[in-house]
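Sequence in, structure out.
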Amino acid sequence: MAPKDLERDARLAAKLRENLRRRKTQARAQDIAPDQADPALPKEPPAG
């Protein structure tokens, strides 16, 4: 493998690890306080 390929592989691996850590943190936060999170959509339609 060429040196550029190894550098690219290392960068991609680092980004993947960073993304995995971020997703794990987000998942833990949702598990801890699911009722405290803002809902994406309101449960009731607006009156009017």
